[in-house]
TrEMBL record:
This is Fucose-1-phosphate guanylyltransferase. The keyword Nucleotidyltransferase applies. It comes from the Eukaryota. GO terms for biological process: GDP-L-fucose salvage; L-fucose metabolic process. Residues 101-532 form the GDP-fucose pyrophosphorylase domain. Keywords: Nucleotide-binding, Nucleotidyltransferase, Transferase. GO terms for molecular function: fucose-1-phosphate guanylyltransferase activity; nucleotide binding. The keyword Transferase applies. The gene is FPGT.
Protein backbone atom coordinates (compact mmCIF):
# COMPACT_ATOMS: atom_id res chain seq x y z
CA UNK A 1 0.00 0.00 0.00
CA UNK A 2 1.40 3.45 -0.98
CA UNK A 3 2.46 5.73 1.84
CA UNK A 4 0.08 8.60 2.62
CA UNK A 5 1.16 11.82 1.00
CA UNK A 6 1.69 14.98 3.04
CA UNK A 7 -0.77 17.79 2.40
CA UNK A 8 0.73 20.20 -0.17
CA UNK A 9 1.16 23.03 2.34
CA UNK A 10 3.15 20.72 4.65
CA UNK A 11 5.45 19.47 1.89
CA UNK A 12 5.91 23.05 0.65
CA UNK A 13 6.91 24.24 4.13
CA UNK A 14 9.30 21.31 4.66
CA UNK A 15 10.93 21.79 1.24
CA UNK A 16 11.40 25.51 1.93
CA UNK A 17 12.89 24.90 5.38
CA UNK A 18 15.31 22.32 3.93
CA UNK A 19 16.59 24.90 1.42
CA UNK A 20 17.00 27.52 4.16
CA UNK A 21 18.97 25.06 6.33
CA UNK A 22 21.20 24.12 3.41
CA UNK A 23 21.94 27.77 2.59
CA UNK A 24 22.62 28.51 6.25
CA UNK A 25 25.30 25.80 6.19
CA UNK A 26 27.01 27.53 3.24
CA UNK A 27 27.00 31.09 4.68
CA UNK A 28 30.60 32.15 5.25
CA UNK A 29 31.96 28.85 3.91
CA UNK A 30 34.18 28.35 0.88
CA UNK A 31 32.07 26.45 -1.67
CA UNK A 32 33.46 23.88 -4.07
CA UNK A 33 33.09 24.31 -7.85
CA UNK A 34 29.67 23.01 -8.91
CA UNK A 35 28.28 23.17 -5.35
CA UNK A 36 26.92 26.68 -5.83
CA UNK A 37 26.72 29.37 -8.52
CA UNK A 38 29.95 30.29 -10.29
CA UNK A 39 28.75 33.88 -10.66
CA UNK A 40 26.01 35.90 -8.97
CA UNK A 41 25.36 39.16 -10.83
CA UNK A 42 23.03 42.00 -9.80
CA UNK A 43 21.97 44.74 -12.19
CA UNK A 44 21.95 48.43 -11.21
CA UNK A 45 20.28 51.40 -12.91
CA UNK A 46 23.12 53.90 -12.50
CA UNK A 47 26.56 54.42 -10.97
CA UNK A 48 25.17 55.59 -7.60
CA UNK A 49 23.16 52.39 -7.32
CA UNK A 50 26.15 50.32 -8.48
CA UNK A 51 28.29 51.85 -5.71
CA UNK A 52 25.58 51.21 -3.09
CA UNK A 53 25.24 47.56 -4.15
CA UNK A 54 28.99 46.95 -4.19
CA UNK A 55 29.37 48.46 -0.71
CA UNK A 56 26.63 46.22 0.68
CA UNK A 57 28.02 43.11 -1.01
CA UNK A 58 31.43 43.92 0.44
CA UNK A 59 29.93 44.23 3.95
CA UNK A 60 28.05 40.95 3.57
CA UNK A 61 31.18 39.10 2.48
CA UNK A 62 33.17 40.66 5.32
CA UNK A 63 30.55 39.48 7.84
CA UNK A 64 30.42 36.04 6.16
CA UNK A 65 26.71 36.26 5.40
CA UNK A 66 27.17 34.84 1.87
CA UNK A 67 28.90 31.72 0.50
CA UNK A 68 32.55 32.44 -0.28
CA UNK A 69 34.57 31.52 -3.37
CA UNK A 70 31.80 32.84 -5.63
CA UNK A 71 32.23 35.78 -8.01
CA UNK A 72 29.72 38.48 -7.02
CA UNK A 73 29.28 41.31 -9.52
CA UNK A 74 27.17 44.42 -9.97
CA UNK A 75 26.55 45.36 -13.62
CA UNK A 76 25.35 48.91 -14.24
CA UNK A 77 23.16 49.97 -17.17
CA UNK A 78 24.83 52.40 -19.58
CA UNK A 79 24.04 56.09 -19.02
CA UNK A 80 21.27 57.54 -21.14
CA UNK A 81 17.87 56.14 -22.05
CA UNK A 82 16.20 53.53 -19.82
CA UNK A 83 16.70 50.09 -21.35
CA UNK A 84 14.43 47.84 -19.22
CA UNK A 85 15.38 44.48 -17.72
CA UNK A 86 15.81 43.03 -21.22
CA UNK A 87 18.36 45.70 -22.05
CA UNK A 88 20.02 45.12 -18.66
CA UNK A 89 20.27 41.41 -19.52
CA UNK A 90 22.04 42.21 -22.81
CA UNK A 91 24.35 44.65 -21.01
CA UNK A 92 25.17 42.00 -18.36
CA UNK A 93 26.10 39.50 -21.09
CA UNK A 94 28.53 42.04 -22.53
CA UNK A 95 30.06 42.62 -19.07
CA UNK A 96 30.53 38.87 -18.61
CA UNK A 97 32.25 38.62 -21.98
CA UNK A 98 34.61 41.49 -21.13
CA UNK A 99 35.47 40.05 -17.71
CA UNK A 100 35.82 36.36 -18.59
CA UNK A 101 36.25 36.00 -22.36
CA UNK A 102 35.39 32.44 -23.39
CA UNK A 103 35.63 31.17 -19.80
CA UNK A 104 32.02 32.03 -18.96
CA UNK A 105 30.76 29.42 -21.43
CA UNK A 106 31.34 26.86 -18.66
CA UNK A 107 29.76 28.87 -15.81
CA UNK A 108 26.41 28.67 -14.07
CA UNK A 109 25.30 32.26 -13.60
CA UNK A 110 22.50 33.82 -11.54
CA UNK A 111 21.41 37.22 -12.90
CA UNK A 112 19.16 39.24 -10.56
CA UNK A 113 17.43 42.33 -11.94
CA UNK A 114 17.45 45.03 -9.28
CA UNK A 115 17.87 48.19 -11.31
CA UNK A 116 14.62 50.01 -10.49
CA UNK A 117 14.12 52.84 -8.00
CA UNK A 118 11.37 51.02 -6.10
CA UNK A 119 8.89 53.89 -6.22
CA UNK A 120 6.12 51.63 -4.93
CA UNK A 121 8.23 50.48 -1.93
CA UNK A 122 10.49 53.47 -1.19
CA UNK A 123 12.22 52.02 1.88
CA UNK A 124 14.06 49.91 -0.73
CA UNK A 125 14.86 52.92 -2.96
CA UNK A 126 18.14 54.03 -1.39
CA UNK A 127 19.89 50.69 -0.89
CA UNK A 128 18.04 48.51 -3.42
CA UNK A 129 15.21 45.98 -3.65
CA UNK A 130 17.61 43.04 -3.50
CA UNK A 131 18.80 44.31 -0.09
CA UNK A 132 15.28 44.53 1.40
CA UNK A 133 15.38 43.15 4.96
CA UNK A 134 13.24 40.13 5.84
CA UNK A 135 11.95 39.11 9.29
CA UNK A 136 14.06 35.97 9.16
CA UNK A 137 17.48 34.67 10.17
CA UNK A 138 20.36 35.63 12.45
CA UNK A 139 21.99 37.70 11.08
CA UNK A 140 18.87 38.78 9.21
CA UNK A 141 18.24 37.65 5.68
CA UNK A 142 17.73 40.18 2.95
CA UNK A 143 16.10 39.33 -0.38
CA UNK A 144 19.51 38.37 -1.78
CA UNK A 145 20.06 35.62 0.78
CA UNK A 146 16.50 34.35 0.33
CA UNK A 147 16.93 34.16 -3.46
CA UNK A 148 20.18 32.24 -3.04
CA UNK A 149 18.53 29.88 -0.54
CA UNK A 150 15.45 29.16 -2.67
CA UNK A 151 17.63 28.42 -5.73
CA UNK A 152 20.13 26.32 -3.76
CA UNK A 153 19.45 23.13 -5.78
CA UNK A 154 19.58 24.73 -9.23
CA UNK A 155 23.34 24.97 -10.02
CA UNK A 156 23.86 21.24 -9.36
CA UNK A 157 21.36 20.36 -12.09
CA UNK A 158 22.07 23.06 -14.64
CA UNK A 159 24.07 23.15 -17.83
CA UNK A 160 26.25 26.26 -18.29
CA UNK A 161 23.98 29.22 -18.83
CA UNK A 162 22.15 32.04 -17.10
CA UNK A 163 19.17 32.01 -14.74
CA UNK A 164 17.30 35.35 -14.93
CA UNK A 165 15.16 36.51 -12.01
CA UNK A 166 13.80 39.70 -10.41
CA UNK A 167 14.74 41.14 -7.00
CA UNK A 168 11.25 41.57 -5.54
CA UNK A 169 9.63 38.16 -5.85
CA UNK A 170 9.81 34.85 -4.00
CA UNK A 171 9.26 31.44 -5.60
CA UNK A 172 8.57 28.51 -3.28
CA UNK A 173 8.06 24.98 -4.54
CA UNK A 174 7.96 21.36 -3.46
CA UNK A 175 8.77 18.34 -5.61
CA UNK A 176 9.41 14.65 -4.91
CA UNK A 177 12.19 13.75 -2.48
CA UNK A 178 14.39 12.30 -5.23
CA UNK A 179 13.42 14.76 -7.96
CA UNK A 180 15.35 17.82 -9.13
CA UNK A 181 14.54 20.72 -11.41
CA UNK A 182 16.87 20.31 -14.37
CA UNK A 183 17.95 23.16 -16.62
CA UNK A 184 19.65 21.01 -19.23
CA UNK A 185 17.72 21.53 -22.47
CA UNK A 186 18.82 23.78 -25.34
CA UNK A 187 17.17 27.19 -25.66
CA UNK A 188 15.12 28.71 -22.84
CA UNK A 189 13.56 26.97 -19.83
CA UNK A 190 11.00 28.72 -17.60
CA UNK A 191 9.27 27.84 -14.34
CA UNK A 192 5.45 27.79 -14.42
CA UNK A 193 2.98 28.10 -11.55
CA UNK A 194 -0.78 27.35 -11.59
CA UNK A 195 -2.66 30.64 -11.20
CA UNK A 196 -6.09 32.16 -11.52
CA UNK A 197 -7.05 33.84 -14.79
CA UNK A 198 -7.07 37.18 -12.97
CA UNK A 199 -3.44 36.73 -11.89
CA UNK A 200 -2.64 35.73 -15.47
CA UNK A 201 -3.62 39.19 -16.74
CA UNK A 202 -0.66 40.72 -14.84
CA UNK A 203 1.90 37.97 -15.60
CA UNK A 204 3.23 35.98 -18.52
CA UNK A 205 1.05 32.97 -19.45
CA UNK A 206 2.25 29.76 -21.11
CA UNK A 207 0.30 28.02 -23.87
CA UNK A 208 1.47 24.47 -23.23
CA UNK A 209 1.41 21.60 -25.68
CA UNK A 210 -1.16 18.88 -24.85
CA UNK A 211 -0.32 16.65 -21.88
CA UNK A 212 -1.18 12.94 -21.93
CA UNK A 213 -1.00 12.11 -18.22
CA UNK A 214 -4.36 11.76 -16.50
CA UNK A 215 -3.07 13.13 -13.20
CA UNK A 216 -0.85 16.11 -12.51
CA UNK A 217 2.39 15.64 -10.59
CA UNK A 218 4.27 18.21 -8.51
CA UNK A 219 6.99 18.39 -11.20
CA UNK A 220 6.29 18.13 -14.93
CA UNK A 221 8.51 18.89 -17.92
CA UNK A 222 6.39 20.36 -20.68
CA UNK A 223 6.96 21.96 -24.06
CA UNK A 224 5.45 25.35 -24.76
CA UNK A 225 3.62 26.28 -27.96
CA UNK A 226 3.80 30.03 -27.28
CA UNK A 227 4.04 32.61 -24.50
CA UNK A 228 1.51 35.40 -23.86
CA UNK A 229 2.57 38.53 -21.97
CA UNK A 230 -0.11 40.00 -19.65
CA UNK A 231 -2.96 38.74 -21.85
CA UNK A 232 -6.66 39.51 -21.40
CA UNK A 233 -8.82 36.63 -20.17
CA UNK A 234 -10.40 36.54 -23.63
CA UNK A 235 -6.97 36.02 -25.21
CA UNK A 236 -6.14 33.22 -22.75
CA UNK A 237 -9.17 31.30 -23.98
CA UNK A 238 -8.56 32.26 -27.61
CA UNK A 239 -5.04 30.79 -27.60
CA UNK A 240 -5.92 27.69 -25.51
CA UNK A 241 -3.85 28.76 -22.52
CA UNK A 242 -6.64 27.92 -20.05
CA UNK A 243 -6.60 24.57 -18.24
CA UNK A 244 -9.70 22.87 -16.89
CA UNK A 245 -9.82 21.73 -13.24
CA UNK A 246 -10.88 18.14 -14.00
CA UNK A 247 -7.63 16.38 -13.12
CA UNK A 248 -6.61 18.53 -10.17
CA UNK A 249 -7.56 17.43 -6.69
CA UNK A 250 -6.86 19.05 -3.31
CA UNK A 251 -3.74 16.89 -2.92
CA UNK A 252 -2.34 18.18 -6.20
CA UNK A 253 -2.90 21.87 -5.71
CA UNK A 254 -1.08 24.21 -3.37
CA UNK A 255 -2.23 27.65 -4.33
CA UNK A 256 0.38 30.40 -4.27
CA UNK A 257 -0.04 33.82 -5.74
CA UNK A 258 -3.47 32.37 -6.38
CA UNK A 259 -5.39 32.92 -3.18
CA UNK A 260 -8.43 33.69 -5.34
CA UNK A 261 -8.12 30.43 -7.29
CA UNK A 262 -10.85 27.94 -6.45
CA UNK A 263 -10.14 24.26 -7.04
CA UNK A 264 -13.09 23.98 -9.40
CA UNK A 265 -12.04 27.05 -11.45
CA UNK A 266 -10.28 27.27 -14.77
CA UNK A 267 -6.61 28.20 -14.35
CA UNK A 268 -3.47 29.11 -16.30
CA UNK A 269 0.25 28.58 -15.84
CA UNK A 270 2.15 31.82 -15.17
CA UNK A 271 5.84 32.71 -15.28
CA UNK A 272 8.48 33.63 -12.72
CA UNK A 273 12.15 33.06 -13.58
CA UNK A 274 13.75 31.65 -16.72
CA UNK A 275 17.03 30.07 -17.83
CA UNK A 276 18.84 30.40 -21.13
CA UNK A 277 21.62 28.11 -22.22
CA UNK A 278 25.02 29.49 -23.17
CA UNK A 279 24.36 29.23 -26.92
CA UNK A 280 21.21 31.39 -26.62
CA UNK A 281 23.06 33.88 -24.41
CA UNK A 282 25.87 34.20 -26.98
CA UNK A 283 23.29 34.74 -29.74
CA UNK A 284 21.73 37.63 -27.76
CA UNK A 285 25.19 39.07 -27.01
CA UNK A 286 26.16 39.05 -30.70
CA UNK A 287 22.89 40.85 -31.46
CA UNK A 288 23.56 43.50 -28.78
CA UNK A 289 27.10 44.13 -29.99
CA UNK A 290 25.80 44.53 -33.53
CA UNK A 291 23.16 47.16 -32.63
CA UNK A 292 25.53 49.11 -30.36
CA UNK A 293 23.37 51.43 -28.24
CA UNK A 294 19.82 50.76 -27.06
CA UNK A 295 17.42 53.71 -27.03
CA UNK A 296 14.25 51.98 -25.84
CA UNK A 297 13.09 49.73 -22.98
CA UNK A 298 13.17 45.99 -23.65
CA UNK A 299 11.34 43.54 -21.39
CA UNK A 300 13.22 40.28 -20.78
CA UNK A 301 9.90 38.48 -20.39
CA UNK A 302 7.63 40.24 -22.88
CA UNK A 303 10.23 40.68 -25.61
CA UNK A 304 12.39 37.55 -25.25
CA UNK A 305 9.87 34.87 -24.25
CA UNK A 306 7.10 35.97 -26.63
CA UNK A 307 9.45 35.25 -29.54
CA UNK A 308 9.88 31.62 -28.48
CA UNK A 309 8.01 28.41 -29.24
CA UNK A 310 6.59 27.12 -32.56
CA UNK A 311 3.37 29.15 -32.17
CA UNK A 312 5.07 32.55 -31.75
CA UNK A 313 3.92 35.20 -34.23
CA UNK A 314 5.17 38.71 -34.91
CA UNK A 315 1.85 40.42 -33.96
CA UNK A 316 2.84 41.03 -30.32
CA UNK A 317 5.66 43.35 -31.41
CA UNK A 318 3.12 46.01 -32.36
CA UNK A 319 1.11 45.71 -29.12
CA UNK A 320 2.35 48.49 -26.83
CA UNK A 321 -0.61 48.50 -24.39
CA UNK A 322 1.61 47.19 -21.54
CA UNK A 323 4.44 49.63 -22.24
CA UNK A 324 4.97 52.52 -19.78
CA UNK A 325 6.83 54.68 -22.30
CA UNK A 326 6.49 54.03 -26.01
CA UNK A 327 9.60 54.95 -27.98
CA UNK A 328 9.53 55.12 -31.78
CA UNK A 329 12.27 52.46 -32.02
CA UNK A 330 10.45 49.96 -29.78
CA UNK A 331 8.39 48.14 -32.44
CA UNK A 332 11.39 47.83 -34.76
CA UNK A 333 13.60 46.53 -31.93
CA UNK A 334 10.97 43.98 -30.89
CA UNK A 335 10.71 42.73 -34.45
CA UNK A 336 14.47 42.32 -34.70
CA UNK A 337 14.49 40.32 -31.44
CA UNK A 338 11.57 38.22 -32.69
CA UNK A 339 13.38 37.26 -35.91
CA UNK A 340 16.59 36.58 -33.94
CA UNK A 341 14.94 34.20 -31.45
CA UNK A 342 12.21 32.67 -33.65
CA UNK A 343 12.54 28.89 -33.72
CA UNK A 344 14.29 28.75 -30.34
CA UNK A 345 12.57 26.30 -28.02
CA UNK A 346 10.78 27.30 -24.81
CA UNK A 347 10.78 24.45 -22.30
CA UNK A 348 8.58 24.76 -19.25
CA UNK A 349 9.05 23.25 -15.80
CA UNK A 350 5.56 23.05 -14.34
CA UNK A 351 5.51 23.23 -10.53
CA UNK A 352 2.01 22.28 -9.40
CA UNK A 353 2.85 22.58 -5.71
CA UNK A 354 4.37 26.06 -5.79
CA UNK A 355 3.78 29.63 -4.73
CA UNK A 356 4.84 32.93 -6.22
CA UNK A 357 4.95 35.99 -3.95
CA UNK A 358 5.60 39.52 -5.15
CA UNK A 359 6.87 41.97 -2.52
CA UNK A 360 7.27 45.15 -4.50
CA UNK A 361 4.65 47.50 -3.04
CA UNK A 362 3.95 48.93 0.43
CA UNK A 363 0.65 47.04 0.47
CA UNK A 364 2.28 43.68 -0.32
CA UNK A 365 5.14 44.35 2.11
CA UNK A 366 2.80 45.06 5.04
CA UNK A 367 0.44 42.18 4.23
CA UNK A 368 3.09 39.47 3.92
CA UNK A 369 5.14 40.59 6.92
CA UNK A 370 2.28 41.19 9.37
CA UNK A 371 -0.89 39.41 8.24
CA UNK A 372 -0.31 36.49 5.88
CA UNK A 373 0.02 33.24 7.79
CA UNK A 374 1.00 31.18 4.74
CA UNK A 375 4.32 32.89 3.98
CA UNK A 376 5.01 33.21 7.71
CA UNK A 377 4.62 29.45 8.10
CA UNK A 378 6.55 28.49 4.95
CA UNK A 379 9.59 30.69 5.58
CA UNK A 380 9.40 30.79 9.38
CA UNK A 381 9.01 34.59 9.44
CA UNK A 382 9.13 36.13 12.91
CA UNK A 383 7.37 39.08 14.52
CA UNK A 384 10.62 40.19 16.19
CA UNK A 385 13.82 39.48 14.26
CA UNK A 386 17.26 40.30 15.68
CA UNK A 387 15.84 43.20 17.71
CA UNK A 388 15.46 44.47 21.26
CA UNK A 389 11.74 44.73 22.04
CA UNK A 390 9.35 42.87 24.35
CA UNK A 391 6.93 40.27 23.02
CA UNK A 392 4.31 41.46 20.55
CA UNK A 393 0.64 40.61 21.06
CA UNK A 394 -1.40 39.44 18.08
CA UNK A 395 -4.59 41.30 17.20
CA UNK A 396 -7.18 40.01 14.71
CA UNK A 397 -4.60 37.79 13.02
CA UNK A 398 -2.19 40.74 12.59
CA UNK A 399 1.05 41.40 14.41
CA UNK A 400 3.60 44.17 14.14
CA UNK A 401 6.97 43.22 12.66
CA UNK A 402 10.29 44.47 14.08
CA UNK A 403 13.51 43.90 12.09
CA UNK A 404 17.02 44.75 13.42
CA UNK A 405 15.73 47.59 15.60
CA UNK A 406 16.02 48.78 19.20
CA UNK A 407 12.71 49.79 20.78
CA UNK A 408 12.13 50.94 24.34
CA UNK A 409 9.84 48.58 26.25
CA UNK A 410 7.36 51.43 26.77
CA UNK A 411 7.17 52.24 23.06
CA UNK A 412 4.00 51.02 21.33
CA UNK A 413 3.74 49.64 17.80
CA UNK A 414 0.23 48.83 16.55
CA UNK A 415 -0.51 45.57 14.69
CA UNK A 416 0.06 45.63 10.96
CA UNK A 417 3.13 47.91 11.12
CA UNK A 418 6.77 47.18 10.20
CA UNK A 419 9.79 48.82 11.88
CA UNK A 420 13.25 48.15 10.39
CA UNK A 421 16.74 49.47 11.18
CA UNK A 422 15.36 52.01 13.67
CA UNK A 423 15.60 53.22 17.27
CA UNK A 424 12.38 54.26 19.00
CA UNK A 425 12.20 55.77 22.50
CA UNK A 426 9.69 55.28 25.35
CA UNK A 427 7.22 57.98 24.26
CA UNK A 428 6.85 56.86 20.66
CA UNK A 429 3.58 55.39 19.46
CA UNK A 430 3.24 53.93 15.97
CA UNK A 431 -0.26 53.59 14.49
CA UNK A 432 -1.42 50.58 12.51
CA UNK A 433 -0.22 49.75 8.99
CA UNK A 434 2.90 51.96 9.15
CA UNK A 435 6.37 51.46 7.70
CA UNK A 436 9.27 52.98 9.69
CA UNK A 437 12.75 52.56 8.20
CA UNK A 438 16.21 53.83 9.19
CA UNK A 439 14.75 56.26 11.74
CA UNK A 440 15.77 57.55 15.18
CA UNK A 441 13.06 58.94 17.48
CA UNK A 442 13.77 59.48 21.17
CA UNK A 443 11.41 62.38 21.89
CA UNK A 444 7.64 62.09 22.24
CA UNK A 445 6.08 61.29 18.86
CA UNK A 446 2.87 59.83 17.49
CA UNK A 447 2.97 58.34 14.00
CA UNK A 448 -0.52 58.35 12.46
CA UNK A 449 -1.93 55.07 11.12
CA UNK A 450 -0.93 54.32 7.51
CA UNK A 451 2.25 56.45 7.71
CA UNK A 452 5.38 55.78 5.70
CA UNK A 453 8.56 57.20 7.29
CA UNK A 454 12.02 56.49 5.88
CA UNK A 455 15.23 58.37 6.73
CA UNK A 456 18.28 58.77 4.52
CA UNK A 457 21.80 60.01 5.23
CA UNK A 458 22.96 62.60 2.70
CA UNK A 459 26.34 63.95 1.61
CA UNK A 460 25.85 67.61 0.59
CA UNK A 461 28.83 69.89 -0.02
CA UNK A 462 30.98 67.33 1.81
CA UNK A 463 28.79 67.68 4.91
CA UNK A 464 26.68 64.91 6.46
CA UNK A 465 22.99 65.80 6.47
CA UNK A 466 19.71 63.89 6.84
CA UNK A 467 16.26 63.91 5.25
CA UNK A 468 13.20 61.80 6.01
CA UNK A 469 10.54 61.03 3.43
CA UNK A 470 7.10 60.89 5.04
CA UNK A 471 3.73 60.29 3.40
CA UNK A 472 0.86 57.78 3.39
CA UNK A 473 1.54 54.11 2.63
CA UNK A 474 -1.19 54.23 -0.02
CA UNK A 475 0.08 57.38 -1.74
CA UNK A 476 0.95 56.90 -5.40
CA UNK A 477 4.43 58.37 -5.84
CA UNK A 478 4.55 57.42 -9.53
CA UNK A 479 1.36 59.25 -10.54
CA UNK A 480 2.37 62.34 -12.51
CA UNK A 481 0.77 65.35 -14.15
CA UNK A 482 2.16 67.50 -16.94
CA UNK A 483 1.34 71.00 -15.74
CA UNK A 484 1.36 72.96 -12.48
CA UNK A 485 -2.36 73.62 -12.87
CA UNK A 486 -2.98 69.86 -12.62
CA UNK A 487 -1.11 69.18 -9.37
CA UNK A 488 -4.48 69.35 -7.61
CA UNK A 489 -4.93 65.82 -9.02
CA UNK A 490 -2.07 64.52 -6.84
CA UNK A 491 -2.80 63.31 -3.31
CA UNK A 492 -0.57 63.31 -0.23
CA UNK A 493 -1.81 61.19 2.69
CA UNK A 494 -5.21 61.10 1.03
CA UNK A 495 -5.40 64.93 0.88
CA UNK A 496 -5.31 67.11 -2.24
CA UNK A 497 -1.64 68.04 -2.74
CA UNK A 498 -2.56 71.68 -3.36
CA UNK A 499 -4.13 71.85 0.11
CA UNK A 500 -0.98 70.35 1.63
CA UNK A 501 1.16 73.06 0.04
CA UNK A 502 -1.06 75.66 1.72
CA UNK A 503 -0.56 73.93 5.10
CA UNK A 504 3.23 74.02 4.56
CA UNK A 505 3.20 77.61 3.23
CA UNK A 506 4.81 76.57 -0.07
CA UNK A 507 4.14 78.31 -3.39
CA UNK A 508 3.22 76.48 -6.59
CA UNK A 509 6.14 77.15 -8.93
CA UNK A 510 8.31 75.10 -11.27
CA UNK A 511 11.02 75.24 -8.60
CA UNK A 512 8.77 73.10 -6.39
CA UNK A 513 9.69 70.07 -8.52
CA UNK A 514 13.01 68.49 -9.48
CA UNK A 515 13.83 66.83 -12.79
CA UNK A 516 11.51 66.76 -15.79
CA UNK A 517 9.14 69.74 -15.55
CA UNK A 518 6.46 67.94 -17.61
CA UNK A 519 6.37 64.95 -15.23
CA UNK A 520 5.32 66.36 -11.85
CA UNK A 521 4.75 63.86 -9.03
CA UNK A 522 5.19 63.26 -5.29
CA UNK A 523 8.48 61.58 -6.25
CA UNK A 524 9.85 64.85 -7.65
CA UNK A 525 8.16 67.29 -5.24
CA UNK A 526 10.67 69.29 -3.16
CA UNK A 527 8.88 69.01 0.18
CA UNK A 528 11.23 67.09 2.51
CA UNK A 529 13.39 69.16 4.93
CA UNK A 530 17.16 68.70 5.17
CA UNK A 531 18.40 68.61 8.79
CA UNK A 532 21.72 68.32 10.61
CA UNK A 533 20.77 65.31 12.74
CA UNK A 534 18.84 62.13 12.06
CA UNK A 535 16.44 62.66 14.98
CA UNK A 536 15.65 66.26 13.93
CA UNK A 537 15.01 65.05 10.41
CA UNK A 538 12.44 62.46 11.53
CA UNK A 539 10.65 64.83 13.93
CA UNK A 540 10.47 67.64 11.34
CA UNK A 541 9.00 65.35 8.67
CA UNK A 542 6.52 63.97 11.19
CA UNK A 543 5.43 67.52 11.97
CA UNK A 544 4.67 68.15 8.30
CA UNK A 545 2.77 64.85 8.13
CA UNK A 546 0.72 65.60 11.25
CA UNK A 547 0.06 69.16 10.05
CA UNK A 548 -1.69 67.72 6.98
CA UNK A 549 -3.59 65.19 9.07
CA UNK A 550 -4.69 67.79 11.65
CA UNK A 551 -5.15 70.64 9.12
CA UNK A 552 -2.82 72.86 11.14
CA UNK A 553 -0.17 75.12 9.62
CA UNK A 554 3.52 74.10 9.65
CA UNK A 555 5.73 76.31 7.51
CA UNK A 556 8.56 74.67 5.54
CA UNK A 557 9.81 78.01 4.19
CA UNK A 558 12.90 78.18 6.39
CA UNK A 559 14.19 74.72 5.37
CA UNK A 560 16.30 73.51 2.47
CA UNK A 561 13.87 71.10 0.74
CA UNK A 562 14.59 68.05 -1.42
CA UNK A 563 12.49 65.66 -3.48
CA UNK A 564 12.85 61.89 -3.07
CA UNK A 565 14.52 61.91 -6.49
CA UNK A 566 17.17 64.32 -5.15
CA UNK A 567 17.56 62.47 -1.84
CA UNK A 568 18.68 59.42 -3.82
CA UNK A 569 21.25 61.53 -5.70
CA UNK A 570 22.74 62.87 -2.43
CA UNK A 571 22.42 59.62 -0.42
CA UNK A 572 25.39 58.65 1.74
CA UNK A 573 25.38 54.86 1.55
CA UNK A 574 28.37 54.46 3.85
CA UNK A 575 26.70 56.38 6.70
CA UNK A 576 23.44 54.42 6.31
CA UNK A 577 25.33 51.14 6.45
CA UNK A 578 27.28 52.41 9.50
CA UNK A 579 24.02 53.27 11.29
CA UNK A 580 22.68 49.77 10.63
CA UNK A 581 25.97 48.29 11.80
CA UNK A 582 25.79 50.25 15.09
CA UNK A 583 22.33 48.84 15.75
CA UNK A 584 23.61 45.35 14.84
CA UNK A 585 26.55 45.58 17.27
CA UNK A 586 24.42 46.91 20.12
CA UNK A 587 21.86 44.12 19.70
CA UNK A 588 24.66 41.53 19.46
CA UNK A 589 26.26 42.83 22.65
CA UNK A 590 23.00 42.86 24.62
CA UNK A 591 22.06 39.41 23.30
CA UNK A 592 25.42 38.00 24.47
CA UNK A 593 24.82 39.39 27.98
CA UNK A 594 21.34 37.90 28.34
Amino acid sequence: MAAARDPPEVSLREATQRKLRRFSELRGKLVARGEFWDIVAITAADEKQELAYNQQLSEKLKRKELPLGVQYHVFVDPAGAKIGNGGSTLCALQCLEKLYGDKWNSFTILLIHSGGYSQRLPNASALGKIFTALPLGNPIYQMLELKLAMYIDFPLNMNPGILVTCADDIELYSIGEFEFIRFDKPGFTALAHPSSLTIGTTHGVFVLDPFDDLKHRDLEYRSCHRFLHKPSIEKMYQFNAVCRPGNFCQQDFAGGDIADLKLDSDYVYTDSLFYMDHKSAKMLLAFYEKIGTLSCEIDAYGDFLQALGPGATVEYTRNTSNVIKEESELVEMRQRIFHLLKGTSLNVVVLNNSKFYHIGTTEEYLFYFTSDNSLKSELGLQSITFSIFPDIPECSGKTSCIIQSILDSRCSVAPGSVVEYSRLGPDVSVGENCIISGSYILTKAALPAHSFVCSLSLKMNRCLKYATMAFGVQDNLKKSVKTLSDIKLLQFFGVCFLSCLDVWNLKVTEELFSGNKTCLSLWTARIFPVCSSLSDSVITSLKMLNAVKNKSAFSLNSYKLLSIEEMLIYKDVEDMITYREQIFLEISLKSSLM
